[in-house]
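Handout, section 4.2: multi-component inputs.
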Amino acid sequence: MSKIDKIVDGMPTEFRDYYLAKYERVKREIDDYFPRVMTKRDLEQVTGLEPLFEPDLETIADTVLRPTHEYLDRGGKMLRPVLVALVLDAYGEDSNRFGALMGAIEVMEDSSIMMDDYIDHSELRRGGPCGHIAHGYAIANISSCTAFSLSHRIFNDNLLGLPTSVALELLDAVAFEHIQMGYGQIEELYWTAANKNTVTIPQYLQETIARCAFLSFRGPLRYAAIIAGAPAEDIPILEKLGEYVLIGYHVKGDNLDMEPDSEAWGKIAGEDITTGRRTLLINHVLRTASKDDARLIETILNSRTRDEDQKRKVYDLVKKYHGLEFALDLANEYNAKSQALVDRLHLRDEYKELLRQFCDFSSVKRRM
Amino acid sequence: MPSPGAIPEETMNASPIAALLAQIDDHYVTPADRAFVEGRLARERALLEDPQHLLAKVIRETEFDWDFEPIHAGFLDLAKPFLERPSGAGALLHAVLREYGCESKGARHAAVILEYAHFATRINDHFNYHGAFADKTPDQATAERLVQLRYGAQWLNNYPRWLIVTNELDVAPEVRIGVHRWGHRSFTATGIARACFVRFAHRGFSGVTRGQWLAIAPMLLCELVISPAAMATVLVGRSEEDLAAVKRAFSHLSVAVKLRLERKSLTDFREPDDAPEHDVSLPMWFPGSVVAADRLAVDLAPLSGTRFPRVKHVARALARVAREGCRVETLRTMRDEELQHVRLFRDELTRAHLLPHAAQSFSAAFEKE
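Output:
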């Protein structure tokens, strides 16, 4: 089974056809938008400063561009740029005119997952070494932040040539997403560092939205809708839709971390146990388990172990207390809420159906 | 007021621009500028801790629940040493705004954006130079604390953007776009310079030319030297040509500041202690121009962890070699070059008919020696 076959495994038919057509386009756009070399002119454009002396362009490319390209070259699902294309098309734009935007969104995704990887001290991503393993924490940190900032040139330098009011609305939307992301990240890391077990489900859901919605999927939905000039009443619906799909997507991701159902997952199973994360399914198990079982889970999580036997014990208790089923039920609940929101959008039926299939796949049916 | 020419070590460790401003007479950056910024930062700090403010203007009310416990335990308590001293960039912004004739209180709030960016860079530098990450498997507890801190830096960088989104700056839409844009560019420049510094250090500065080293000086000092002037120029709605001239001028000033700091580090400089809040000064005082020109080298093996050389150790070892071999003519050449860049700074502003008082004040400060 090829990588793309594994990605689309479980994808509903119409959405799969749309996805495959856009997937190739996004791949072609990435190098144009985010080149592998840095020229003096590029440096001037991205920093706004005319270079003095002779900058070491090779080292800049090697440290700032290359680590993100290593992620991009391994190929992700590219769901976010495809979603952007879908919303642009749905509201009457021709998404093919916005190739740079699609490339930019994928660069945002891949530079940001490099950050996720060193937070979790992960070793593998998409079957290759994580940025901090290949280049060290310092370069991974600087490179991911800087590449993430570079990926936003599409908005900051108004590369799409949008009217001032639209360009500003987009920049404000991006700033809001980044502000929420910053706070959400602090919440998650504090909860983990403090081994906090009293996090409520609404707090967990809010933290997930704050931390991840900038790309999954509120941000892309909102950006594309603003650019396409979607009706004002549709934009809050799309934002909420992005949050609900994210909940399903994220919970499904937690389940896949615990119990991968595809060899293409490309990560080490049970990393959430090693990092001590109180994911939703762990949160549920801690609430419902016997005192002894809960204590055992806590002890293992707090030890940040990589030991497979210890991780297996947690997995067995998650199974015993139906943690995976609990999370799946929640994913289904929010998938149903997402589908209901799609009905309220001012769109042609064919696009509503594509969006419904996107929700269904992302929340429930994806296998990696 | 310190004596001319002597950069107090404590100030130098905190912020090179603060050290430079300390040498400018009080007519350009006034005590009132500094007092205003300190007051504004104290007010912002109170807001940063206030859930009602966060809900109303920053992270906003939502369908679900926020947890506010991490504000202190997960962020402020850890970041305390990094938040205590403003860099001086905010005060310089005020001075430049005043020279432009801008008395808008709204525009002056942008000092918060500059100072928070500096706080964030200090934390990021601490993360980047931490020896624990040179090892194959960093100590788990240390690594977790550092990652927490580093995400505190991300919060510090993003948080003040509420001032732009809600237009507390009280500026026109085009200017708000300019403020968003400059923030990103400054952040990008800061990152590129630091990526080069770390990679150069990992290589023991082998093969790095003097031109390559000095090319990153404006980006290393961007937040402190260029950003206050550029941000003020954006805030008052000056043309792109004026903005370009200001950035060119202050890029030359950055090179002059950098050479001055390097020169001081070769002569009357004690190595800073290991306090994390001093990490940000490391690439600024590091005498890379001499290391590169003289092709100085050290044995990296004893300075390395199990995977990568320790950046701080490499920089300090090379700086020690540079100090030991430092020649009078080298210092004289650096001083001449420093003054040459100050002249270029002044000429650039004069040609564009911009900021004559800044040109005069900074030039006078550099003439003192």
